Amino acid sequence: MATFISNSPAETEAIGRQLAEEIGVGSVLALKGELGSGKTMFVKGLVAGLGSRANVTSPTFTIVHEYRGGRMPIYHFDFFRLEEPQSIAHLGLDDYFFGDGLSVIEWADRFPELIPQQARWILFEIKSSNQRAINVQGRAVSNSPFASGGLETAAS
To answer: Considering only CA atoms, which of 51, 83, 85 is closest in space to residue 68?
Structure first.
């Protein structure tokens, strides 16, 4: 696990943009964090880092947004308003999760049983009004280009 400290929304977006360099087709990112912890800002950076100019917004009311125009499609889910797993069964999640792009799920912890085992969990923690801790779990990121960037890395 690597922990990154973000001191602004722009830094949170930059972490997403830099993580995009590691993303391959079929990747699944499961995001967990309170309201206002930076999940959507992070996704904005991911989408930009993958070369898309799409306008990223949280899919709270639509459940999924699709962003195209980059090196792969991005499927951005939000499980916040869902009451039960059956609410999303009709979406065909496997088609997204094992398909031709990147799947990013905000509020993935609401239904962890729906998240594929190979998913990489990213945890967002509010430290202060501006500061966030972003914990990237899963495969090692020590050789990641963003681990040595201008962002503050905390000991994990």
So the answer is: 51
pTM for the model stands at 0.85
DSSP codes of every residue in 65-114: EEE-SSSS-EEEEE-TT--STHHHHTT-HHHHHTSSSEEEEETGGGSGGG
Q: What is the fold, at CATH topology level, of the domain defined by 2-139?
A: Rossmann fold (3.40.50)
* Domain boundary assignment for the chain: 2-139
Per-residue pLDDT reduced to its tens digit, 10-68: 999 999 999 999 899 999 999 999 999 999 999 999 999 999 999 998 887 778 899 99
Is the distance from CB of 152 to CB of 8 less than 8 angstroms? no
Q: Which residues pair with 65 in a beta bridge?
A: 76
